[in-house]
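Sample pair:
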Amino acid sequence: MQSDKRNYHHGNLKETLIRTSLEMIAEHGIQGFSVAKVAKKAGVAISAPYRHFPNRESLLAETGIVFLTELTSRMRSAATEAGNDPIERVASVAGAYVQYALDHNVSFQLFSAARESRLPAFHEQSREMINFLFTLTQEAAPEATWNELLELMEALLALVQGFADMFYQGYFSQLNLTKDQISKRSAVAAKLLINGWNQCRKDGEQPL
């Protein structure tokens, strides 16, 4: 019988496997992720995960729900701590996104993989995060049309994900920057993006 390294009981096997999945992705990325590797790391039989997850995609989807839930919570807290200034709130949320991505080595790779499962709970959590970001962007750029808000939110997401990807690829290690410094840089960049967009609108130019 395989030893129980995590001392889980039957009631929390599912949670244990999801947490182990997040740990594995943080350590090695999503490439090479498998149910068998998760089971081995969790210290359970290879067949154990299939009590809750019929395949790799369903495990990734459930892991993605936890990822989105934690990320959204982190961003909401950052927005609250930033106060009432809408641009400062966007900047703070951008920094929180990057900090979470750097700490957990998860980002759009997991989001994209989980989305393929079409699990309703994942898409509900995804909508909650997007609606929060859309409202935040709308407050920071009140003159923007609906389509412009979508484009601006897309630009903000590309910006923060760009910082995360540059970290994954080792760019910032050449500059000897800490994760906290990288997060702060992303917040400044987000603020510049919003301020630049608003200034273009004020000057009668096309922002994007």
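Residues 143 and 202 are 9 Å apart (CA to CA).
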